[in-house]
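Q: What would this chain look like folded?
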Amino acid sequence: MRIAIDYRVMSTEAADRGMGRYTQQQLEAVLELDRENEYVLACFPGCRDELIPPAIRRADNVSLTRLSLPTLANGIFGVADDQILRFSAELQEWLLRAEIDLYHAATPFIPPVADDLDVCPVVATLYDLIPLVYPGEYFPESDPNWRRNRAEYVRGLQLVRRASRVVAISDSARRDAAAYLGYPGDRSAVAYPVIDPLFRPLAPAETDAALAGLRRRSTLPEEFVLSVTGVHHSKNAGTLLDAHRRLFARTRVPLVVVLPTEAAARGFAALFAPQEGVTLLTAVSDAELCALFNAARLVVHPSRYEGFGYPVVEAMTCGTPVITTTSSSLPEVGGDAALLVDPDDAEGLAGAVAELWDSPRKREEMAARGLAHVRRFDRDQLARNASAAYAPAATAARSPDGRRRLAIWSSAPPLHCGVGDYNAELLEPLSEEAAVELFVGDDYLPSPRLTSRVTVHHFSAFERRAAQAPFDGIVYQMGGTFMQEFMYRAVRRWPGVVVLHDLLMGLGFFWIHRSRKTLAEFRRAIVAPEGDEVRAAYDRIMRAANGSDPSPQLQELFAAHYLLGWVVESSLAQIVHMDAAKAELEKRYPAARPQVVDMGVADPWRGSATGEDARIRWKHRLPSDAFVVGIFGTIIPIKRFDSCLEALAELRRRGVDWTLVVAGDAPLPDYMAHVQNRIEELDLVDAVRIFGHADRETFDELMLGVDAVLNLRYPSQKGMSAIVIRAMAAGKPTVVSDIPEWSHLPTEACWRVAPDEREPERIADRLELLATDVSARLHAAREARDFFERRGTLRHMAAQYLGVLDAVAVAPGVAAASGAR
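A: My prediction, written as structure tokens:
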């Protein structure tokens, strides 16, 4: 078996401390038992090779590989969040090429980290779950990077949670994995660290010699209490100093505090004022630390939480008595050899120190018990328990659970993209019925809410995943924007079901290719399949444009010829959301196989109570007694803002008191400026609230807070509008454009207006009736909600998706590439 050991820690400042030492001593111990398996050290940029012990480097069954992954060009800390998925894909490609049978994630919380490795089984080392236990302390909202740091940590948690086996450094850490992560106890093992042989009882002369340099660098008391600690919350330095302050006032006992780095010393000084009787030391060598343990009368380790607690065992190994706390692993590590106090009891800690300081006999008894106790942390248990995880992990590859496997290509939140929002909502019910893997594009990391629900990959991982286990279905959520461009070639190579959110995507395809300087490919692969007539018309427009913007002429051409022939030719079926779209595809493309799926959305009332409208209006500072109208979604010309604003001006002249809520992105600055100018020209500034982009919670609240929705679309893009379904889900009457493709919408909930010269007047008429006739508004609201419950829920939409996939002969995975063009 070839086992890859994650050696990222050797590229960090922790290479010669806690995690680095444990990783290396574990491998050294395992190698003493195991001469059959082959170990590959996966070293990353900046690896401190000189710290890898000779016993590891010289072993016949160990090789060292320097990973030259493109995303690691700037070192492991140079991988930006938006490259994490690409890093994961590259790492797993290496694992596949290197024929690795098992990957040991020795430091799962060191970035960069992918939260799911699927090319081979994973063993993860668990040190502690401190940030999960104290999230407010380790991800404070005062830190501008707290969201990023939390997301990074959550990815590490996911990697541990999904590992085939976990090796914990204490039974306390193992129990926490079960309690906090739900990790099965029978799949985790405890392999205690081994204390470096350097730590041992010293003769007085040895101690003095080792401390000579330290005494020259600092003022070191002859007798003292020692604490080897840190700054962060779990180390509990505040309680330590409080206890010493109380004790020093009574007995003048000096305290020496050893901090791991100069940065830690600066942090300590920033948090705590200088205190009489306290000596701070840093840059202490291991030999000096051993001498300090020997010189101290006793050692205090006051932590609130430790995965193991090295200083406790190191001190005992040197024959020094220890006071520690009743928290986490410390009773386990200290055993009956340590004196235990509550971590938040400063007076209790002071009393324990005083008692031990004044009792040579008790110190001698505790020292003897400590030397006996530390024998349990020997090299044999580390080797035996760590290596025992490998064989069962290697045979515990994820077995199929009987569900169909679906690959979905889509953009995703946090991109501001309707297609991505739609797909993110669809995945919630779909992933309950199928094993879903999501493939996304470059330059962003999908939201943790999404990555915790389904496995998310960079799109470059698809071929590998399909080769590992062919998919039962492939779905492409296609739009005509740069956010979906990454899937266009994949559609041709691996045919699947394509979801067409609009039929008029031709101009988007054009601008993508123009920006990429690939218009020749656009003409050949996208225009040419529409026929000679369309190709000739396209050529004429481009010649006439002579380098200028041909958009108006191309928009007219592409409205008449959809440029979807290449999609039809490459796909096994097409999903649309309207009968009218299905008829259009069948008419224009005889080879099309369109399937209608009702568009579904999340229920905005989920978890809400009756009477929420008043709370929402108060929260968002909307008037409680006015007629509130909402326009939601992207602010673009086809939303007919001019007509809407003119209608609202007319409504005011008719004596109706109203407020307009506008919530959505404004991708066209010139058009947004035009809308704002019209608001001012019509003297409507006092009644219009523009919220801009709103997160899902705020968006839903605003939708619930309005009385009616304006959702116009003209010229039509031949697509369904998620906004109108969201409005009906919220039980809101909606004024919509009278366009043929929306004929299936219920007329009593969706009040139509023709997009002609009388459009503003008709909008005003509809709104006036809704504002003044409460019974009409309530009837429309009931009809809207009824339509949503019958045809607009996510579960209804997911069931229809699965029905389409069952009906379509979907070629599995890479095998479908045989039909690629």
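The two ends are 39 Å apart (CA to CA).
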